[in-house]
Amino acid sequence: MKIIRSVLLCGITISYKFVCYMLVSYILISYILVCYMFVSYMFVKVINILCMPVKVVAEYKHPELRSLGMSFNQNLIVASNRGPGINDNAKYASGGLVQVLLPELLNIAEQLQKSQSDNRVFWICGNREDETDEISTSEYKIGEISLAAINIPTDIYNDAYNSISNRFLWFLHHGLFDFYPKLNFDDIFFRAWENYRKYNRLFAEHIARIAPSDSSVLIQDYHLSLAPQMLAEIRSDVKISHFSHTPFAKLNDLKQIPRAIAEELLRGINSLNTKAGFHTPIWESRFKEAYKFYLHSVPDTFNIALGVDPKSLEAVKASDSFKTNQDSIRKESESYTLIVRSDRLEPSKNILAGFNAFEKFLENNPKYLEKVIFKAYIYPSRTEIPEYFDLSKKVVDTVNNINSKYETPSWIPIHLHIQNDRDVSLAGLSVADIVMVNPIADGLNLVVKEAIVLNENDCVIILSKNAGAFYELKDFVIGVDPEDIKQTSEAILTAVNSNKVKSSKNLKLLKQLCIANDADVWFRKLISISTKQKS
Questions:
Q1: Residues 6 or more apart in contact with residue 96 via CB below 8 angstroms
Q2: Is residue 219 helix, strand or coil?
Q3: Residue 313: phi, psi to the nearest 5?
Q4: For 214-262, how does the pLDDT look when each residue is reduced to its tens digit (9 = 90+)?
Q5: Cβ atoms of residues 278 and 291 within 8 Å
Q6: Are 306 and 468 in contact (CB under 8 A)?
Q7: How far is the C-alpha of 462 from the C-alpha of 477, rounded, in Å?
Q8: Cα–Cα distance, 129 to 86 (Å, whole number)
Q9: How far lies 97's CA from each of 80, 170, 220, in Å?
Q10: Per DSSP, which regions of 309-453 are E strands?
Q11: Burial environment of residue 82 by CB neighbours within 10 A (0 to 12, 13 to 18, 19 or more)
């Protein structure tokens, strides 16, 4: 019995020690694995950060990206609501989109002409200037571009442009339904929607008439959301893309409009042999979510961010008017911390909230009275639309109220400039200590990128999380929820207290991010994607 008991005791002891050794080994091995995974993760993160400037520079300078489209040899057609202003008797207003597209189209058209290709570049736009009751087309040449301006009857144009594009679709995509009275979806609305259809069909039919076989058609922005499908139904032999320069509506906002309108809008942008493009993955994902919800399928989409052109900004900086404006603004603000904003005067830019946040900052931080000034350079916009006209009055009243509350004989807190003067606003951005860009939503927002590239003071950026540019710049800015006045006022305090010293490496990277996809690269990427057959 003693022998058996000894054997059992020995076995139990050995088993116990074995279990203990195994447990300790397991814990030790697990610890080593966790440490290894953590070190590997951190190593990859550090490598990514170190390599990021190289990647950005490569995208900007790499000859293969720069040459996208240089060997382009197809017929190319661009369609947009606005067209380029030219000399002689052509009368078209030019917007930011035109400024981006025109130089690139001229270059491509010239390349095709020099290569003695039979292919051509066409630009189709609406004539916004001449009131008419007749549908006709005026044709012009800009360099080697064939420009066609569709003269649209006044009632069709007013309904399509003002009532639908700018009062309905703009508010829808920018999430403004909670800020302004909702539209009544009544007979007046549906009459306007029918004219919006007619407007889009005029573009589709004209393109269908002139487009050679296998042309690539690049349709631009929310004014022409129905034209892609309309064109595809007429001409199955052309490749069609639609690019949205605005955000895309949230699904919950789309649910507030008639389902038939939402489905028509989604199908119009992307169906048959068409593709849908956006400036950021955020707007692209919203479109996909809505498309799946309403149409139960997956759309063909892509996204390309747009950067600023460093050469054009350098040209601005070299001008005498820019330097004169810089000197004047510096002299006015030399004793103060200078906050600057530059926006079109329209609801999505959230101008009132910016001023209200500044007022709360002054109220909560009286020690900064007479130490900070806020210069706002505001461009008048769409004054024929009631909400825009009312906003203009509210902006002036708000600024007057804040100034009357806080101003002293030697200090006015807010300097409001409502005028079309790009040189002055860019000069202001170039010398700002703080730049505020707080839109409710923005497809991209090039102002913040211009400010970063132009600024000479290592400025602090306060940027709305709903601006498309935030997706690229979030690691370098103070992000704010645009509707949160308290948070924005606290962001101002943080910015004022910032020592504004960024590492030269980070500052270089930030500027590179802003120029990486300038108009040349962006447009050639757009062509490259759009000219491929639908996947």
A1: 446
A2: strand
A3: -70, -35
A4: 899 999 999 999 999 999 999 999 999 999 999 999 999 999 999 999 9
A5: no
A6: no
A7: 6
A8: 13
A9: 9, 16, 9
A10: 337-344, 372-379, 414-418, 434-437
A11: buried
Residue with tokens 């757009």: 526
Per DSSP, which regions of 331-389 are E strands?
Answer: 337-344, 372-379
Residue 412's DSSP bridge partners are: none
DSSP 415-440: EEEES--HHHHHHHHHH-SEEEE--S
The helix (H) or strand (E) run that includes residue 125 is strand 121-127
Unique residue bearing structure tokens 């102002």:
447
Q: What angle do CA 348, 351, 352 make, to 5 degrees?
A: 115
* 137 DSSP β-pair partners: 150
pLDDT tens digit sequence for 418-430: 998 889 999 999 9
Query: Using H for helix, E for strand and C for coil, what is the string for 230-252?
Result: HHHHHCCCCEEEEECCCCCCCHH
Residue 415 near residue 422 (C-beta atoms within 8 A): no
Q: Which of 137, 154, 262 is nearest to 205 (CA)?
A: 137
